[in-house]
Amino acid sequence: MKFRTIPCIALLFVLLAGAARADTLLGKWTCEFDSQIGVQKYVFEFTESDGRVLGFATFERSLGNGRIELKEIHHVGEKVSFVEPFSFDGNEIAIRYSGTLAGNEMKLRRDVGDFATEHIVARRAE
Predict the structure, then answer these.
(1) Which residues pair with 67 in a beta bridge?
(2) CATH number of the domain within which 88 lies
C-alpha cells in the first residue's frame, strides 16, 4: 500500500506545480495581431529578480524589429498591466497594456497613446 502512496504524492506535487505556474506572469508569452500599421508579432518575457518582476518585449513590426524593457509591471491576482516605451520620429509614446491573466492566456487591451486601441491575446510559450 505504501508503494502506491508515493507515486500518488509525486503526481500531486507535479499537478500543483503546473497549477502554480499557470497563475503566474513569469515566463514567455507570444502574440500576433493586426493593427493600423500591419501585423505585429511579440514575445513578452517576464522574470523575477530580488523580488521584482522584470519584463522585456521582442517585436517584429513594419516600423522595425527590436527588443525593449517593459516598465510599470503590475500583477495582482488575475489583473496584469505594463507599459512598453515607444519612440517614433522623436516622440515618446507609452503603449499601455492592461487585462487579465487566466491560465495560459493573457487577454490584454493595448492602448497606443491616444492613437489606437487593440484587444490582443498572448499565450504562454511552451
Answers:
(1) 58
(2) 2.40.128.120
